[in-house]
Amino acid sequence: MFSVLSPARFKVLLAGLVVALVLGGVALFGAQRTVSAAVPDEASADAGFSRDMQVHHTQAVEMSMIAWDRSDDLDVKTIAYDMATAQQAQIGHMSTWLENWDLGQSSSLEPMAWMNGDMETDEDPSMTPDSGHGDGVDGHEGMSDTTDSATGAATGAAAGAGMPGLASEEDLARLRTLTGVEGDRLFLTLMIAHHRGGVMMAQAALGEASNDTVKDFAQKQVIAQQADIEAMEEMLTARQ
């Protein structure tokens, strides 16, 4: 006998399917050497995006594995596992691009130096994280908080300074301590903000990068992460 999927479960599985399709496309491109006449250089948006998005993805994998380990909610565990596996694989693809371009995995350039202008997204109000869920997640205005407003102490990972959507070290520490619906809500809140930041970076890469592989990946990331955001917003609403 077939069980009937709940709307929430269907949304989670659909988001996972979108990510899987995107990942398949990225793997196809990532397995090939760049054939563009101009190979990205050290200061290019292509290289900067590839490095910074690996850092951004690394935190998403960390948060997802925390949620997968601590949650008892099947939908939360499913979407966390899907995001962790997909983004870990994408880290490998971006690392391979840099190797193919004969560039290092790290750079002396400041994080996000590849972006021209600011990261305002007036056209799409969904890029502004919703702070009205009552989970005590303050200061997430789509940008990583690297200093505490009261003490001036560093709170974010130095490698991710200035990246949009990163959770603070305090948020990560709190996520590791919570279980049940409270932990699920915090994970979803942090990951929605994190994904919105990832979408902002991908949209910037679409305008700044020159390599077709990078631009194709960025476009697919926008589609996949927006699908995840929609699923997580519905999940968060259902868990209030």
UniProtKB/TrEMBL annotation:
Annotated stretches, region: Disordered? 115-164
Q: Which residues form the signal peptide?
A: none
Per UniProt, residues of the DUF305 domain are: 46-236
Q: Where is the composition biased (Low complexity)?
A: 144-161
Superkingdom, natural source: Bacteria
Q: Where is the composition biased (Basic and acidic residues)?
A: 132-143
Q: Name the chain's protein.
A: DUF305 domain-containing protein
Report the source organism.
Arthrobacter cheniae
Tell me the classification of the organism that encodes this protein. Answer: Bacteria, Bacillati, Actinomycetota, Actinomycetes, Micrococcales
